[in-house]
Amino acid sequence: MGNLTKTISIMGVLLITGCIGETPNPFSSNLNNNASQKSLLFKTNEYSFMNSLKTVKSKEDRNNFMDEFLLKSDMQCANYLNGPLKKTTTQQNDSLYMSIFDTASSVFGMKYVTDTAKAVFLSDDVESQDEKDAYANALSPEIRKGVEIGRARYAKKMMKKKKTSLKQYNTVALKRDTLIYDKQCNDAYGLIEINRALKEMQTQINTRTIVKAPSPLTINPQAIKDKVTAVTKEVKEKEENKVKIPLPNVENNLTKKINAPSIKMPHQNTLLSI
User: Fold this and answer.
1) For residues 164 and 178, what is the distance between their CA atoms, to the nearest angstrom?
2) pLDDT value at residue 249
3) Which residue of 49, 70, 86, 148 has the smallest Cβ count within 10 Å?
4) What's the number of domains the chain is made of?
5) Which structural domain range is residue 133 located in?
């Protein structure tokens, strides 16, 4: 009877455990895990939030949720971006890279370098994909900084709305802003900010204004130039090495085989014993 009771208890625990879903990780973001999807979209995980939009009844409640959302979304976005680069092979991102190369060419006069870089992003073969990754990896610190700059700009826009009444800026409008804020946690927005920094420098040069020195809170155009130049040099060296590889000379090999001296085997007498 005792063994039967234990068996029933164990079966009960297994059944109950099997019905419990996986507990969400409060420190991770809600990412789409579909392997067939080409683009992973960031979404702030609100599981551990102390405040909720569903319980907002006053302007203070709304502002408390906004503060918590911005803080925790930034932490989760940083973790998300510190992972592998997010699908740099999309056509949209390829176009953004080429825009960066065009602007860099105008600012620094490096058309020879940027034309080679653009040719890489216009190609679709396997080898060019490795070269695209090389550019993306080299520029990844600036891409991450660009995302931070863009999101910080939008966060200021949201914070200005804290003074408005709940009727003027309700939970539906705030939810819309949070979705836009999440959308900007993406490499594409970092590339846009890189191009913006280059264009600002271009404007300063064209208007002959004093070029502002880069700060830790801005993207350094000179760093963009140096990194694009370095990767392009590697790409060119790789192409030159491929040209230098000698192809096997089939005609010479055939001639050597024909003219090779023949090896005479010693005659062996076979003795037959009866």
Assistant:
1) 17
2) 59
3) 49
4) 1
5) 51-234
In a domain, 11, yes or no: no
Query: Looking at residue 128, what is its pLDDT?
Result: 84
The whole-number average pLDDT for the span 53-77 is 95
Residues in the chain: 274
Summarize the confidence of residues 182-205 as an average pLDDT.
93
Residue 252 within a domain: no
Answer yes or no: is pLDDT of 140 > 60. yes
Residue 1, domain member (yes or no): no
Q: How far is CA 129 from CA 33, 46, 132, 134, in A?
A: 23, 36, 5, 9
Percent of the chain with pLDDT over 70: 69
- The tokens describing 20, both together, are 């419990």
Tell which wins on pLDDT, 100 or 19. 100
Residue 15 belongs to some domain of the structure: no
> Does residue 17 have a pLDDT over 70?
no
Better-predicted residue by pLDDT, 15 or 90: 90
Task: Transcribe the chain into DSSP letters.
Answer: -HHHHHHHHHHHHHHHHHHSPPPP-TTS------TT-S-PPP----TT-S--GGG--SHHHHHHHHHHHHHHHHHHHHHHHTSS---TTSHHHHHHHHHHHHHHHHHH--HHHHHHHHHHHH--SHHHHHHHHHHHHHTHHHHHHHHHHHHHHHHHHHHGGGGS-TTTS-HHHHHHHHHHHHHTSSHHHHHHHHHHHHHHHHHHHHTTPPPPPP-TTS--HHHHHHHHHHHHHHHHHHHHHHHHSPPP-HHHHHHHHHHSPPPPPPP-PPP---
Contact yes or no for 155/181 (Cβ under 8 A): yes
Q: What is the mean pLDDT of the chain?
A: 78
